[in-house]
Amino acid sequence: MSSLKHKTTATLVLLTLMLLIASALAVDYNPGVSKGQWVKYGNIAMSGLMADPSANQTSWMMLEVTDVSEENVTLHFTGKYKNGSDIPSGGMTCNVSTGMVNTTSGMYGYGNIFIVGKDLQQNDALPEMLPSISLKINSTETRTYAKTERTVNIVNITSGTPEIGEVNYFIVYDKSTGVLMETGLSMTFTLMPSMNMGFTLAATDTNMFAETSMTWLQDNMIYIVIAVVFIVVVVAAVLMARRGRKPTTPTTETETKKTET
């Protein structure tokens, strides 16, 4: 009876530990953006026989967050062609947990690459962007976007065979916001007729990184405090040295000589 009781207790403890570990390893997909934030994309180019000519005529595109509700982020897209005319605007609501998209034109399904959950880590799985395609974060690096050094999550996708063709695709997300920073695609089809295509896009400006200066202060606070304390000590020492120095007063002999002169 005692042995059975001990076994039951051990089993319960083991199950509890497994549940705790599972909950600790679970990924939370939460938005890292707020209403009014935006990111502007440039360096937009497309090449190859399958290229859309309008892509190379694009000067810039901008993504603006117009609403955030639980796991849903609503985005509005605008842009300009190089000739100054407007790119047709549009919008979509993206669920960062499921990967599903609902566009303003009424289309519903997969297709979101513009935003994922915040603070994801290497090897974290991403929601499906296309049916039956499972993605994960391959690496976390430091890169510069919009003139700001950022920690980013990188997704690499490679598929195909030499006989048919290959697709190489990468996506870079800002870690703290989950917003797309850069993407690039190259496709080569070796079947008759052979075709190829390339595409690039990168963030050039944003108001999402306003906290960078504060982050820098936090990261370097200990050095700032040491520098301030050092300066205060040096200034105090100089002042004390000056106060300790007695003022020179003319002697009687010196005064007499001045009077005779």
What does this protein structure show overall?
The protein has 2 domains: about 25-210, YmcC-like fold, CATH 2.40.360; about 210-245. It is about 25% helix and about 40% strand. The strands form 2 sheets. The protein has an 11-stranded antiparallel sheet with strand order 6-5-4-3-2-1-13-12-11-10-9. The chain has a two-stranded antiparallel ribbon with strand order 7-8. The model is unreliable at about 10-25 and about 210-215 (pLDDT under 50). Strand 10 (about 150-160) and strand 11 form a beta hairpin. The chain has about 260 residues and is an alpha+beta fold.
* CATH architecture assignment name of the largest domain: Beta Barrel
Order of strands in the sheet with most strands: 6-5-4-3-2-1-13-12-11-10-9
User: What percentage of residues falls in helices of 4 or more residues?
Assistant: 25-40%
| Termini separation | 120 Å
Main traits of this protein?
261 residues, 2 domains, eleven-stranded antiparallel beta sheet, two-stranded antiparallel ribbon
Layout of helices and strands:
Elements: H1 2-25, E1 38-48, H2 53-56, E2 58-69, E3 72-81, E4 90-95, E5 101-103, E6 108-109, E7 125-126, E8 135-136, E9 139-145, E10 148-161, E11 165-174, E12 180-189, E13 195-206, H3 212-219, H4 221-244, H5 252-260
Question: What's the short version?
Answer:
The protein is of the alpha+beta class and 261 residues long.
